[in-house]
């Protein structure tokens, strides 16, 4: 069986109508690939459309300020992607006259562009014969060829890239790369794929050996850290509040939040009220403290689970450097805080 011919035939019949598939513009392809890292297409699509509407060229993105970029990115997660995206746009616009490098090796030199993204741009924009290896490709090849290499191991990417390169038709690598990723996304899915209708069900080694659900081989998940956040949502006589910018390295860098008390475990009213009274708002008398959500909101990140409570704190007088609701709407916040404000605070 000619694997690439069968695969690309399937792709032509099953291709999804996605905007980044209709262009070889490296700016648009770069934007889509950065956005789709760790992100489902359905989630990433509105962000791609919003970014391209607001920043139709790399010069437009470069000219924006970081808060504009983070605000449009709000809710997509992994915010370092947005910060690197902005810095790379500035580099391409200002140092490269708006022209992206036209080959894999030079694309790798861009900030935030790893092997996968460099290969995607090189292949889809310039038709360079370089394999694009993502989770879909790992899955398809490991099953079709019965490869038991642990996909997070140091050697895995090089091994699977070599396998993909061997199967790839060198006269049309872009079509092959798109096809194998699409096949993994739509047909050779992680859980319970419908192998009875698969175009490779007579040649797939994993299917013949009844190993489909065992491949690809993945290491155990990283240990998740639990953290306990208590946000103080202050309101003064003018209904202004207080926010702060997360400038330290770590989650949500350069996004805004309310004043934060982080505790070792979920704490009740008495503990948090005592901390608020002893450590905050010395210039304003506290009128009331209300626990907005008695049950913690659990916000799951890749390596941390955040248990979040919001505490509404009413104070007398006018707070220094207070922020009004209209200003809040323009600033980038973590999505869990944005959702709280939208539901309970900005009404």
From TrEMBL:
One annotated GO biological process: base-excision repair
EC number: 3.2.2.31
Pfam families (UniProt xref): HHH, HhH-GPD, NUDIX_4
InterPro entries linked to this entry: A/G_AdeGlyc_MutY (IPR005760), DNA_glycosylase (IPR011257), HhH-GPD_domain (IPR003265), HhH_base_excis_C (IPR023170), HhH_motif (IPR000445), MIG/MutY (IPR044298), MutY_C (IPR029119), NUDIX_hydrolase-like_dom_sf (IPR015797)
Chemical reaction(s) catalysed: Hydrolyzes free adenine bases from 7,8-dihydro-8-oxoguanine:adenine mismatched double-stranded DNA, leaving an apurinic site
Record's keyword terms, sorted: 4Fe-4S, DNA damage, DNA repair, Glycosidase, Hydrolase, Iron, Iron-sulfur, Metal-binding
An MF annotation (GO) of this entry: oxidized purine DNA binding
Transmembrane segments: none
Cofactors named for this entry: [4Fe-4S] cluster
Function: Adenine glycosylase active on G-A mispairs. MutY also corrects error-prone DNA synthesis past GO lesions which are due to the oxidatively damaged form of guanine: 7,8-dihydro-8-oxoguanine (8-oxo-dGTP).
Record's protein name: Adenine DNA glycosylase
Source organism (scientific name): Flavobacterium soyangense
């Amino acid at each position: 069986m000619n694997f690439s011919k069968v695969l690309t035939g399937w792709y032509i019949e099953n291709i999804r109508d996605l905007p980044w598939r209709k262009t070889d513009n490296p700016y648009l392809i770069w934007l889509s690939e950065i956005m789709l890292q760790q992100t489902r297409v359905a989630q990433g699509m509105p962000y791609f459309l919003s970014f391209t509407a607001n920043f139709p060229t790399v010069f437009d993105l470069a000219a924006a300020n970081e808060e504009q970029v983070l605000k449009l990115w709000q809710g997509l997660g992994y915010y370092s992607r947005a910060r690197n995206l902005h810095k790379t746009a500035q580099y391409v616009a200002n140092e490269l006259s708006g022209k992206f490098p036209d080959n894999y090796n030079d694309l790798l030199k861009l900030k935030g562009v790893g092997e996968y993204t460099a290969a995607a741009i090189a292949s889809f924009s310039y038709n360079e014969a370089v394999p694009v290896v993502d989770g879909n490709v790992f899955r398809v090849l490991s099953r079709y060829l019965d490869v038991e290499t642990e996909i997070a191991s140091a050697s895995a990417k090089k091994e699977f890239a070599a396998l993909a390169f061997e199967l790839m038709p060198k006269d049309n690598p872009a079509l092959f790369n798109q096809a194998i990723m699409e096949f993994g996304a739509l047909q050779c899915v992680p859980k319970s794929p419908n192998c009875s209708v698969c175009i490779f069900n007579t040649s797939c080694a994993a299917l013949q050996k009844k190993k489909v659900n065992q491949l690809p081989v993945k290491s155990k998940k990283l240990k998740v850290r639990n953290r306990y956040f208590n946000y103080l949502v202050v309101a003064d006589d003018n209904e202004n509040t207080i926010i702060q910018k997360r400038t330290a390295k770590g989650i949500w860098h350069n996004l805004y939040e309310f004043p934060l008390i982080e505790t070792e475990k979920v704490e009740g009213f008495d503990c948090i009220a005592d901390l608020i009274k002893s450590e905050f708002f010395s210039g304003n008398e506290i009128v009331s403290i209300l626990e907005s959500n008695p049950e913690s909101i659990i916000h799951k990140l890749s390596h941390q689970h955040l248990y979040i409570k919001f505490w509404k704190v009413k104070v007398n007088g006018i707070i220094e450097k207070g922020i009004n609701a209209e200003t809040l709407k323009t600033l980038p916040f973590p999505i869990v805080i944005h959702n709280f404000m939208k539901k309970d605070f900005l009404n």
